[in-house]
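LOG
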Amino acid sequence: ALLRARDAGAVVQAAVKHLHEDFAVPQVAMRVWRGTASDLPEFQPVSEATRGFAAALTEPCCSTEPVADTALLFAGRAPKQGSYAYVPLRDGGTFGLLALASEESMRYYQGMGTLYLSRLGDLIGCALAAHVPPA
């Protein structure tokens, strides 16, 4: 679905849909701050704190505590979740953040393996990079 997407909005929609349906992720939020590819909420401005947090991630971050403007990322849709995963979206430089949330406190926890989350970030980042102009 990511490879078939014809624009950045379609990449976002495919990623969110399949994370919900195929991976049973209850809450998905994504922000892309490079380019103005769409009017979707995923392309709205984010704070410097969110950009800095994403840029500092060397691997996905899993936690039972919200970080990086989580309330703003989820636009009030995930106020009382039990665990979170934050995945940077990159193509050399960091240009976005994927945030996942679950009511289950042990769905995403500090110290869990993040290989699949890393690969998801790589795939989504690559698909988006094909449709948003470089910085």
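LOG (cont.) second protein
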Amino acid sequence: MKSPMPTDPALSHVAWGSWRCVANPDIDTPDKLARLLEGCVAAGITTIDLADIYGGFKVEPLVGAALALAGIGRSAIQLVGKCGIRPVSPARPENRLKHYDTSPEHIRRSVATTLEALRTDHLDLLLLHRPDPLLDADAVAETLAGLVRDGRVRAVGVSNHSPAQLDLLRSRLELPLATN
């Protein structure tokens, strides 16, 4: 089923950032993290900020397992994901040199991997994590619009982009960028 074109995503006023959770012994297992996430939702913190690269690619699977344990309904939270950075990592041996990659293939593969790790069928918001000097604005716009049409992503945006980089991508998109 295809989703309608997005409007601004409804996010909580405060987001929980997952960046370093695998390095924190208080929340580095699914059961410990599940308790934290339950507390966040109870306190009205329903937006979870993620990125495929966080924790050496270990954060998204940990959050997915914790959400499954917590039994938090998907409609009770908003998942914000980021992609576009390819660091050298044992978890991604094909990445032999750190670089930014906003190719359609990388964006689609990143979203598919993220959705599988989080055990969900969609992201509420997908961000391009960093500007890519080799960005093909037309190809990226087509890819992002396709992910929204397919329902895998509800809204799109960017992170850490300059106004000129934002304007370039906006000029090619048929849908709004929800955030920078």
